[in-house]
């Protein structure tokens, strides 16, 4: 390659790359996708593959790397997870066609797809049990809206969303990518990226509401959107931006988007990002699903059910009718154990129809996706029969969507083999007997193989060459091959009249015959013809499935609903959970409540049983606040979290881990538990705590449930106490909500006597011979001390430090009792800023005869009578 001249191939590459400057370009070169220039450098580092060079451009060597086409999906996933976008440029014609235009002609290429975090459809790139949402946020004058879709399932939803609500709504959805207008990107980028989503900027024209309405009508082929509901201009703009972006990334092959569903702004319990993180609802603090509430309660057996469960936990309902209908379904399946198990067994055989349908719509599907639709609809019909006549409105409604697909099921059952291949180009997926023409063509193709074997045997007999074989490759087709030592015999009369020389290699000589060439033509035509027939059938079957996309989607949604109800019932039966009473009151009473995740962890570890506790925030009082005191490690944070999670589970439609629960509808759930800094944004632990507390105090209404732990601990004692004191007063006087407020500031317990809605509670401990024993029991009343020194001993601080801390603590407490003026004298008396002298050598205590005797005893080897004798022996020794 010349320094000064750009080759036609590189000119084509640069032209395509200019259109996708912000994406890595996968440039198809035969069996590889190749990358050049900066793309190659970035991709080689991200994928840990070799970086090489190919030719020169402007006097510089061109960096190059590549990945095999067959392994591209895994590399795509790695790049997407690391924040890259990938444009895939395929060869749009056969190289032979390009050569017809001249020896230097370049194969025509074009981008067929732009892969971004929010537009993934392949199973290998997605988590089967999680949604992959793409969101669009739009602001039109004073209105704003959020729209979101999962193109792998076709779901599309929209809701009004003021900018102040954008963060909690995005935290609820956990999208992979968010579209924003170029004029709002600067203000919103940090907020979106903090939630772990990629930000994509769209031109302002993409958010034009008038143009958006036309795009949406064209998408669903309707004259007006009135049949789908009434949408504000901002909602239309948000949905229109989604469609515009999908058209851009999918290069005109729009996914199968279902009719939009409009969500009310206050339809779900509001939970902000900090609360979701603190409560570990769908992901643990360490990252990932393990240790989260979702992992602890997920007993779904279908991918669609798992995704619905995550949505339910992320968006607990505020609709009492909906909540009660879900509880009714769970209760029915809990009571009818046989029905529940039969349903779960049938559901286990349900494939992921939503994603199969989406791949077929995008023309990325194969025969297995058709089989998934067939198998899913067949199971749906069986499940509909199982739940016919059950006394649950929710299950009956779900069952309605499982029927009515008999014609499609029959077509797919007759046309497809039981286990079809992944790709249509592999052939062999149309069942025998479905198409007589295909059967005849296959017979010719398959019998041709037998004829080849017979012809080989005949040639061996005629030549006497036992090593002679008839083989096939893509260059020569069928040919006769023999070793070079036998070739002279075939080139000499009389065999040379039959065998025609075609090729000589290092060790072999290849021939053909007129008979073999004629047979090859018939066989090859039969094979290609059979494959073409199957491809035509695939296109017909795909069209039939897409024509029934609506009913198939309803069936998939109904199966997911049944799966979630059955899984909640299975969970309640196995874990002894109860149906909560949820109503419009302000009540919050939990009897013997437990923490679902902690209890499960204790059981797995084979440790102690979880200690259940009551919580009664209301006794005909509004507001109702428990001020919780007690030492660290006593279980305060667990108690706070478990009650928040019980409220969340109840409104998600699940039963709850308790003996009884009465939950007045919770509009907002706020949690400020735990401590972490945010160094990337210059925030200390205390600043993060104050920001989260401010959000609670500014937003919580009288139906909110707030849990706060150790407010003010990140600053000086009196500063912290004053902040905690004022925060509690604000919750009581202004927010007037239900709250659990844990603190180490025992001075605050006096507020229970001044604020009518505040009541003291404490986590009980017991002291024995200088040790503290945590009972994990929550009782009414206030703690008299914090037991911090004892907890420090349990943590393993050196004995010298513990002894010194006791001395300082006693002196500080004595000084406080004597009056604040003693502080200077106290510092003079205690050498707080000088190293303490080394401790005296520990006195070795001599072992008593009783201790020596007990050391010899092996309890497991004692019989009951021997144990009783040992007790008498010890008692006599003490008396003597």
UniProtKB/TrEMBL annotation:
Keywords: ATP-binding, DNA damage, DNA repair, DNA-binding, Nucleotide-binding. This is DNA mismatch repair protein MutS. Residues 704-720 form the DNA mismatch repair proteins mutS family domain. InterPro entries: DNA_mismatch_repair_MutS, DNA_mismatch_repair_MutS-lik_N, DNA_mismatch_repair_MutS/MSH, DNA_mismatch_repair_MutS_C, DNA_mismatch_repair_MutS_clamp, DNA_mismatch_repair_MutS_core, DNA_mismatch_repair_MutS_N, DNA_mismatch_repair_MutS_sf. It comes from the Bacteria. SUPFAM superfamilies: DNA repair protein MutS, domain I, DNA repair protein MutS, domain II, DNA repair protein MutS, domain III, P-loop containing nucleoside triphosphate hydrolases. HAMAP family: MutS. ATP binds at residues 630-637. GO terms for biological process: mismatch repair. It holds the Pfam family MutS_II. Gene3D superfamilies: 1.10.1420.10, 6.10.140.430, DNA repair protein MutS, domain I (3.40.1170.10), MutS, connector domain (3.30.420.110), P-loop containing nucleotide triphosphate hydrolases (3.40.50.300). Belongs to the DNA mismatch repair MutS family. It comes from Gemmobacter lanyuensis. This protein is involved in the repair of mismatches in DNA. It is possible that it carries out the mismatch recognition step. This protein has a weak ATPase activity. The lineage of its organism: Bacteria, Pseudomonadati, Pseudomonadota, Alphaproteobacteria, Rhodobacterales. The keyword rRNA-binding does not apply. NCBIfam families: mutS1 (TIGR01070), PRK05399.1 (NF003810). GO terms for molecular function: ATP binding; ATP-dependent DNA damage sensor activity; damaged DNA binding; mismatched DNA binding. One of its GO terms (cellular component) is cytosol. The keyword DNA repair applies.
